[in-house]
Write a structure and sequence with these properties.
Length: 328
């Protein structure tokens, strides 16, 4: 007899997937349990690869589990007849790290040490917007440069983002962020992104002390050793949902990957959207033209100069790309 049960991929190492089977489906033997399985061979022929975060259907048989004295089922390690049979439609998928169905990204920067790189942050925000991932801006180490933290907060609030300015060292701002995650983001898949040194692991330890060992593993994974093994993994949160180990999110790079075309870029700048279509010229690039609604808004102080400058630089990069240059 074959069983078919839905779940979510939480880990992949060397082609072996860990799937957290849904706990609601109590008519199946392995409900609510993590199982290890391979992907069905037909996916490879179809050019499809399962990703961490995917909702999938797992097929397994009697050889995949054993029963204890109470009749409770437990998976057999490496059960040969346990396979991912189907992948549900994704809401989004990123190339590096390979992960799907992220709902919200906590985009971290420091007010100082290291100095905030707003261009890199804006580039990441554009990629997230393009992929339908909601960004939440986190300004850490706010105690080191309070004026800078306030300045950055104003920039991104004006752009339409939820912003938290906080200090893990002095324990302010983190309780508010944890409440926001528990209430507003309950049940979602979260990820944390940011450059090296901005305090991502410290933030995770502060927000989720129950994951202290996990964040220690994350810190080791992102070390830049030649033989360091890296993989993306989802960790369950006590309030529901998951948080992702996202070492690779600091490496996103327009020059190496074509995430979008130049014509898509204006739509990824949140504060530009209400003004699109209001320019004098229909082919306006929104970089320097007269009677451009975006340029005019920047001059009036309605759009931050740093945000518009990031747009201009990114537009220049995408303008030089050709469709035949794109990499898979």
């Amino acid at each position: 007899m074959a069983y078919y049960q839905t779940g979510r991929i939480t880990k992949c190492v060397g082609g072996l997937y860990t799937v957290n089977l849904d706990s609601e489906d109590k008519g199946q033997p392995l409900y609510g349990i993590d199982v290890e399985c391979r992907a069905r061979g037909s996916f490879r022929h179809e050019g499809v690869t399962p990703l961490v975060g995917d909702r999938v259907t797992v097929q397994y048989g009697y050889g995949s589990f054993t029963l204890d004295d109470s009749g409770k089922a437990f998976p057999v390690a490496g059960g040969a007849d346990t396979v991912i049979d189907e992948i549900a439609e994704r809401k989004n998928a990123l190339i590096r790290p390979p992960v799907a169905n992220i709902d919200t990204m906590l985009v971290c920067m420091a007010s100082s040490s290291p100095a905030p790189d707003l261009y890199t942050v804006d580039k990441l925000l554009c990629i997230l917007e393009f992929n339908g991932i909601e960004p939440v801006i986190i300004i850490g180490k706010a105690e080191l440069a309070e004026d800078k933290a306030r300045e950055i907060t104003e920039i991104y609030k004006k752009a339409g983002y939820k912003v938290f300015s906080l200090s893990c060292a002095e324990d302010f701002g983190t309780p508010e962020l944890r409440r926001y995650i528990d209430v507003e983001l309950k049940g979602q898949i979260l990820a944390v992104a940011g450059a090296s040194g901005v305090g991502k692991s410290t933030l995770l330890n502060t927000l989720f002390p129950e994951l202290s060992l996990v964040t220690g593993d994350i810190s080791r994974k992102i070390s830049r050793g030649k033989n360091t093994t890296r993989h993306t993994q989802l960790y369950p949160l006590s309030t529901g949902g998951y948080i992702a180990d996202t070492a690779g999110f600091s490496l996103l790079d327009f020059e190496r990957f074509d995430f979008m075309d130049k014509d898509d870029l204006p739509h990824t700048m949140r504060e530009f959207r209400p003004l699109l279509g209001s320019c004098r010229y229909t082919d306006c690039t929104h970089t320097k033209e007269e009677d451009c609604a975006i340029v005019t808004a920047r001059r009036r102080g309605e759009i931050s100069p740093s945000r518009h400058q990031s747009f201009v630089e990114l537009y220049g990069i995408l303008k030089e790309k050709h469709k035949w240059d794109k990499k898979d």
